[in-house]
Amino acid sequence: MKRSDFLRHVAALPLLGAAALGTRPARAQAPAPLRFAWDWAPQGYHAIWGLAEERGLFRDAGLRVQQDRGYGSGDTITKVATGAYDMGFADINALVQFNARNPNQRVIAVAMVFDRNPAAVVTLRRTGIRSAADLPGRNLGAPEGESSRVLFPVYARAAGIDPASVRWTSMTASLRESMLATGQVEAITGLMQSAVFGLRAAGVPAGDIVSLPYAEAGVDLYGHGIITSAAFAERNPEAVRSFVRASIGGLKAALADPKAGMAAMKKREALFDEALELERFNMTRDVAIMTESARRTGFGTLEPERMKRLVAINAEVNGIANPPAPESLFSTAFLPPQAERMP
């Protein structure tokens, strides 16, 4: 080979290498980390996110989600507001008071999960309480500030009794069901699926438990939903949108195959009681998730008129003189198209 031909050959090698590199597929982008806090310790309905992870819905959405237990809706909301977590699952009724007190740390709901609030008065047959009319003069128990206790006056008025006609005993959430089981109080307030199965875990037979759901008295309020801070949503709209889509996919998967959802949670939590939590999931589905509204409008929906009522009711029972505007508490901009959200 002539020297001139050799030099031309060598000079062409970098160009050939660059062309070859250009034909290689681009390296897949690493999933974006996202920190998500539940409302409480692992329960059946958390299978929504257990299945979203197990079936790769988060991965397909470009997310790597860290899921941690919660310690109550108020705690989860605070952690989301301060940035300790990016998103959470909490009772959106609590947003009214939180945002009123912390306008510079606003937290918003971006998708509903409990379309109907599962708050209830729960008691035992031995007390003789069968309806709201039997509550006056009775001793009810709940933690101070617990959302169902805060909303009790709304239920009482809707059911036609005086809210002041009952006596209250306060305790920690961990003692609520045991104090009812041992007769220290005559009824308790709480989310029905939590109170009922807390009693079951305390050894109370299912047939001895009586539930008086607030919704059956006409209290039309949303319950728990997916939340994030307004600041995080503004900075990371695609992450919020992707998480909501994957969560709705996980909800549909759990509804279609609840046992698979319980198995997914068992892999996460060794002490998870699959049989008990399957019953809890089914109750949650029936009383809070699969509502007529959800069947009509799809999962995740937040309706302005219902949010307006929610703000008005919570402002009244909490004595909030200047409640936040309803539209400042939620956004539907992160929901998938309605066709993707239908049951």
UniProtKB/TrEMBL annotation:
Q: Which key words tag this protein in UniProt?
A: Iron, Metal-binding, Pyridoxal phosphate, Thiamine biosynthesis, Transferase
Which pathway does it operate in? Cofactor biosynthesis; thiamine diphosphate biosynthesis
Give the highest taxon in the source lineage. Bacteria
Q: Which Gene3D superfamilies match?
A: Periplasmic binding protein-like II (3.40.190.10)
GO terms under biological process: thiamine biosynthetic process
Family annotation (InterPro entries)? NMT1/THI5, SsuA/THI5
Has UniProt tagged this entry with the keyword Iron?
yes
The record lists the catalysed reaction(s) as:
N(6)-(pyridoxal phosphate)-L-lysyl-[4-amino-5-hydroxymethyl-2-methylpyrimidine phosphate synthase] + L-histidyl-[4-amino-5-hydroxymethyl-2-methylpyrimidine phosphate synthase] + 2 Fe(3+) + 4 H2O = L-lysyl-[4-amino-5-hydroxymethyl-2-methylpyrimidine phosphate synthase] + (2S)-2-amino-5-hydroxy-4-oxopentanoyl-[4-amino-5-hydroxymethyl-2-methylpyrimidine phosphate synthase] + 4-amino-2-methyl-5-(phosphooxymethyl)pyrimidine + 3-oxopropanoate + 2 Fe(2+) + 2 H(+)
State if Zinc is listed as a keyword.
no
One MF annotation (Gene Ontology) recorded for this entry? metal ion binding
Annotated SsuA/THI5-like domain residues: 45-259
Instruction: Please give the family membership noted in the entry.
Output: Belongs to the NMT1/THI5 family.
Assembly description: Homodimer.
Q: Which PANTHER family match?
A: 4-AMINO-5-HYDROXYMETHYL-2-METHYLPYRIMIDINE PHOSPHATE SYNTHASE THI11-RELATED
Q: What does this protein do?
A: Responsible for the formation of the pyrimidine heterocycle in the thiamine biosynthesis pathway. Catalyzes the formation of hydroxymethylpyrimidine phosphate (HMP-P) from histidine and pyridoxal phosphate (PLP). The protein uses PLP and the active site histidine to form HMP-P, generating an inactive enzyme. The enzyme can only undergo a single turnover, which suggests it is a suicide enzyme.
Please give the name of this protein.
Thiamine pyrimidine synthase
Q: Species name for this entry?
A: Roseomonas indoligenes
Its lineage opens with: Bacteria, Pseudomonadati, Pseudomonadota, Alphaproteobacteria, Acetobacterales
